[in-house]
Write a structure and sequence with these properties.
about 325 residues, alpha/beta, Rossmann fold, 13 helices, 7 strands, about 45% helix, about 15% strand, globular, Arsenite_MeTrfase-like
Length: about 325
């Protein structure tokens, strides 16, 4: 029995390392999850098709309102202005791009590796009449020419698909693409540092059945890649992870309330059980504070344009 378990464990580990996120393999990994069906994702996501942690003001708030608050928070932290050119790495179904442009009028480029997401986002941009401001590309972050410079870079829950081995490459690319006085805003799901080494070297339910090639970074892995591969420094850090529990519960409730619609798309009962477990499994991780979700603002040393901007202490009483 132990031998059988060991063989099974080795099989999953070998499968996991075979999914290492090279340029070619990353596209396959992303496609296995995000190209399932746009209709499928629309069943459990909010109308904006935002697939990341929301920010709730009160517990019974609607998912749509909470997602809009998260988007507004990212826009505020990025300090986007009309004359800026923004790059979004992992642009999803385009909701963040359209909201940033509607609020600021900036120029925006979003990249994704999902053909289904690309088609949907381009359709929504055309419907909104924003084709002159927003461009979406099917492109790996490593394939963006270094001559391109962006005033702001935003990446919301994409870095989990980069992989441990390519984390330095990711930050090196951001360093080369960011304008001298630019800001980089990163949102990501994190795993505790004490578990990171064992976790990254093994497979688990999420890596096997939901996100092939995925690897949640620890906060320390993010900062080590930042310091090794770039001149970036941290301006602000916030952990919004406790908001992911209600986000996942909303997704799970929407999902389970529409099982018939999911079956009608061609998925089977096993698929439904796997995805329900995915939602609950992840929700438990955030409920127990085992998992976190960080928003980090990066800049470079000497960026004096940030001096006293949005001083959070301005309204506090004196000691």
């Amino acid at each position: 029995m132990l031998l059988t378990a060991g063989i099974a464990s080795a099989k999953y580990f070998l499968r996991h390392i075979s999914r290492k996120n090279t340029v070619t393999q990353t596209r396959r990994n992303i496609s296995q999850h995000y190209d399932l069906s746009n209709d499928f994702f629309s069943i459990f996501l909010d109308p904006s098709m935002t697939y990341s942690c929301a920010v709730f003001k009160v517990e019974d708030e609607s998912l749509e309102v909470a997602q809009q608050r998260k988007v507004n928070l990212l826009i505020k932290k990025a300090k986007v202005e009309r004359n800026h050119h923004v790059l979004e790495i992992g642009s999803g179904w385009g909701s963040l791009a359209m909201e940033v442009v509607k609020q600021t009028g900036c120029k925006y480029t979003g990249i994704t590796l999902s053909e289904e997401q690309l088609k949907y986002a381009q359709m929504k941009v055309k419907e909104a009449g924003l084709e002159d401001r927003i461009t979406f590309l099917l492109c790996d972050y490593r394939q963006i020419p270094s001559r391109c410079k962006y005033d702001r870079i935003i990446s919301c829950e994409m870095i989990e698909g980069v992989g441990h081995e390519f984390m330095d490459d990711f930050f090196g690319c951001c360093e080369s693409l960011l304008a001298p006085d630019g800001l980089f805003v990163l949102q990501f799901i994190s795993i505790p540092e004490e578990r990171y080494e064992e976790y990254r070297r093994s497979s688990d339910f999420i890596k096997e059945y939901i996100f092939p090639g995925g690897c949640l970074p620890s906060l320390a892995r993010i900062t080590s890649a930042m310091s090794t591969a770039s001149r970036l420094c941290i301006e602000q850090v916030e952990n919004i992870g406790y908001h992911y529990y209600p986000t996942l519960i909303r997704w799970r409730d929407n999902f389970m309330a529409n099982k018939d619609a999911i079956l009608a798309l061609g998925f089977d009962d096993k698929f439904i059980r796997v995805w329900e477990y995915y939602f609950i499994y992840c929700a438990a991780g955030f409920k127990s504070r085992t998992l976190g979700t960080y928003q980090i603002v990066f800049s470079r040393p000497g960026n004096d344009k940030l001096a006293y901007a949005d001083n959070p202490y301005a309204s506090l009483p004196a000691a």
